[in-house]
Design a protein that fits this description.
Layout lengths: L26 E6 L5 E10 L14 E9 L5 E11 L4 E11 H8 L4 E2 L1 E4 L4 E5 L3 E5 L7 E5 L9 H12 L2 H4 L5 E7 L7 E10 L2 E9 L5 E6 L5 E3 L7 H12 L5 H15 L1 H4 L4 E9 L9 E10 L2 E11 L4 E5 L2 E4 L5 E4 L8 E5 L4 E9 L5 E9 L5 E5 L9
Antiparallel strand pairs: 1-2, 1-10, 2-3, 3-4, 4-5, 5-7, 5-8, 6-11, 8-9, 9-10, 11-12, 12-13, 13-14, 14-15, 15-16, 16-17, 17-18, 18-19, 18-23, 20-23, 21-22, 23-24, 24-25
Length: 407
């Protein structure tokens, strides 16, 4: 059975005391046995959140903590993850936590499906002394004691911590139920070592039968959520302020991916740089439609996408997008300021002719087009466009009278 081993770094560090409450420093803290063996590890990860247009759900300015208990051979026996909260004189882990036991940790290492316990219990207290030492109390014999900062150990979010941050922001009811019905699989994405794919499976739980996957880096920056039902629909998720640099580093790998999920990340970065008006809000979804290409080593593949936005609760098509391995790009926008090409063009309350007329526009009038409307029983068609009226309300106009949309 494959096991995951954590290697400790024994370091003699100068102890620093402080009467004031010291802020938690992101990094790895280690507790050693008297003989120098590593007993347990506490990892602190601070995510500053983001207010930029790339975040579908912002985690906000949060500090997370994860505990790793080890056996006498240095193998993990438990992952325990939560959020760190200031208590006044110290810090405490939130009562909401994710726990992965030894049996499921073994499944993680074998890339098998595993389960996580979502529980509510009194969180342990963490007291920081300066920048290099912390004391844990109230966590039991597995974790209680003094820890020392390991400056050469790079913090990496373990499985429990990644899943905690995702589920805590997305599915708070999971913690109220006591034990989650969700199952997971962790896989490393081969084309880029800084990318992990987490596959989530919801069976008979609050989500019903459902699955999706996440792309993330090692420092809790979840950059995309991919719905795996039908064509992949991809949203940027939990994007940190490191996203731009992270995405730039990975573009060479992402743009050559044939599948929809990873190449969608490349396309999203391209749109954010070159068409910010399309991606400046948080309601954008890239829907992978299809790809085509030749055979052999020199084959060039082209991926096709729909860029879908939520306009006042109505899904509209904002653009068609395509990109190829050779960097050929094609973006056709269906939104923005457009001119009307006919006189006495009716503005409808709904995208059909059997509804109220809200008003009229004439040739040369400029309207704000939000996108094409997804008609019932068909793909995004070219019959109706959602527009924003002068009073801020939304109406619908036939696309045959909007310049640059229906041609």
């Amino acid at each position: 059975m494959m096991k995951k081993k954590i290697l400790g770094l024994a370091a003699a560090l100068t102890l620093v005391s402080s009467l004031a409450l010291a802020a938690p420093q992101s990094g790895v803290y280690q507790q050693m046995y008297a003989d120098g063996r590593l007993k347990s590890v506490v990892t602190i990860l601070h995510n500053p959140g983001t207010g930029d247009y790339m975040a579908q759900y912002s985690m906000g300015d949060n500090t997370y903590v994860c505990f790793d208990a080890l056996d006498n051979k240095g193998y993990e026996t438990e992952n325990y993850a939560s959020k760190l909260e200031e208590t006044g004189s110290s810090y405490a882990a939130s009562e909401k936590c994710f726990v992965i036991d030894a049996a499921n940790l073994a499944k993680c290492g074998q890339k098998e499906l595993f389960k996580v316990n979502a529980v509510k219990k009194q969180g342990p207290v963490l007291s920081f002394a300066g920048e290099d030492r912390l004391t844990v109390s109230g966590a039991g014999t597995k974790y209680d004691g003094e820890y020392y900062f390991s400056p050469r150990s790079k913090p990496q979010a373990n499985n429990a911590l990644m899943l905690y941050a995702y589920e805590a922001a997305r599915n708070n009811s999971l913690f109220e139920e006591g034990t989650g019905a969700n199952t997971y699989r962790i896989q490393q994405y081969d084309l880029a070592p800084w990318v992990k794919r987490v596959e989530l499976y919801y069976k008979d739980g609050s989500q019903g039968d459902y699955s999706e996957s996440l792309l993330m880096d090692n420092e809790l920056n979840i950059v995309m959520s991919c719905n795996t039902e039908g064509n992949a629909s991809c949203k940027p998720l939990f994007v940190s302020d490191k996203y731009v640099q992270w995405a730039e580093n990975g573009l060479a790998s992402f743009k050559t991916c044939v599948g929809g999920d990873e190449s969608s990340l490349y396309m999203h970065r391209y749109l954010a740089k070159n068409f910010p008006e399309l991606t400046k809000s948080n309601n954008m979804t890239l829907v992978f439609k299809d790809f085509f290409g030749g055979e052999g080593e020199n084959a060039v593949f082209t991926r096709l996408y729909d860029l879908v936005k939520d306009a006042d609760g109505v899904k509209v098509l904002a653009a068609n997008v395509g990109h190829s391995d050779n960097d050929a790009m094609q973006v056709k926008k269906y939104m923005g300021l457009r001119s009307i090409t006919g006189d006495e063009v009716r503005i409808r309350k709904k995208p059909n002719t059997d509804c109220d007329i809200l008003g009229y526009v004439n040739k040369g009038d400029v309207v704000e087009v939000l996108g094409l409307v997804n008609q019932t029983g068909e793909a995004f068609g070219n019959k109706w466009a959602a527009i924003r009226l002068a009073n801020g309300n939304m109406g619908y106009v036939s696309t045959m009278f909007i310049a640059g949309v229906n041609n």
